[in-house]
Amino acid sequence: MARIIDGKAISQKIKDELKEEVARKKSEGKNACLAVIQVGNDPASTVYVGNKKKACAYIGIDSKSYELPEETTQDELLNLIDKLNDDPKITGILVQLPVPEHIDEDTIIRRISPLKDVDGFHPMSVGALCIGEKGFVSCTPAGIIKLLKYSDIDIEGKECVVIGRSNIVGKPMSLLLLRENGTVTICHSRTRNLKDVCKRADILVVAIGKPGMINDEYIKEGAVVIDVGIHRKADGKLCGDVDFESVEPKCSAITPVPGGVGPMTIAMLMYNVVSAM
Ligand code: NAD
């Protein structure tokens, strides 16, 4: 039977460590304040934003909410970002994605100062990751590296296969595994013989956005399987991109959905906010 990697417990541990670090930094006169901007009232975004503010309160840092109406123009949003960039009290800026269709996501991401880019989406942050320099790292893949480390799973020299090449998960994930000296293969929608490639993996990270697509036929006996996907089924329950029932008996360790990768994303956002203090 596989070990279930408990993201909830590991994220709690990280938040508790951060809480201590915040207290220490505050005693040295340092402060942090995360500005969280939401445009429109997409219910999922409202939940994510609420959880981020709660996490800030838990570790002892301030957050400031900007809830803007759906009809906010791109220029209005850019003006707010400019103001926050210039405000020395604001140490991190986050625009909850997706933004409404009339606003260009890339333009917004590029406007946030790289010094306050706690989501790690700015091209400067991505470039720094690419060449191994210090910078903010996208929270979900950074959280997966922490999950592996806290679970004592070695990455060095391992065959690591990442399915998905998105800018926020797949690509930074591959770079982080490479940074940890994994031998990395990236798969995507045009990959041929996906099953054969996946079957080489000692560590398989699945970020496809297709509920339950990866079953035991994609898994090498004893592999570590990280499921990034998150979907709500018709019965209201959550599931991932991995068919947990089929894969779990074959692998050595696996993240559940919920309670695996998800909680790590917010913990790593807090990590980024604290590192900017
Ligand atoms: P995305 O849609 O931007 O990217 C999906 C990737 O999967 C693409 O690169 C595509 O090439 C690849 N793909 C699609 N179909 C494929 C197929 N049949 N075979 C191989 N590759 C295929 O998605 P994303 O933003 O990277 O997110 C992936 C999943 O992770 C989604 O379910 C999303 O909700 C979830 N997610 C979870 C968290 C979290 O905190 N848990 C964070 C971000 C994303």
Q: What report would you give on this structure?
A:
- There is one protein chain.
- The chain is α/β, with parallel strands linked by helices and 277 residues long.
- The chain has two domains: 29-115, Leucine Dehydrogenase, chain A, domain 1 (Rossmann fold, 3-Layer(aba) Sandwich), CATH 3.40.50.10860; 139-262, NAD(P)-binding Rossmann-like Domain (Rossmann fold, 3-Layer(aba) Sandwich), CATH 3.40.50.720.
- The protein has helices at residues 7-27, 43-59, 74-86, 105-111, 123-130, 139-150, 170-179, 194-198, 244-247, 262-275; strands at residues 3-4, 33-39, 62-68, 92-95, 159-163, 183-187, 203-206, 224-227, 231-232, 238-239, 253-254.
- It has a six-stranded parallel beta sheet with strand order 1-11-8-7-5-6. The chain has a three-stranded parallel beta sheet with strand order 3-2-4, with helices on both faces. A two-stranded antiparallel ribbon has the order 9-10.
- It is globular.
- Nicotinamide-adenine-dinucleotide binds at residues 140, 163-166, 168-170, 187-189, 191, 194, 207-210, 228-230, 241, 261-262, 265.
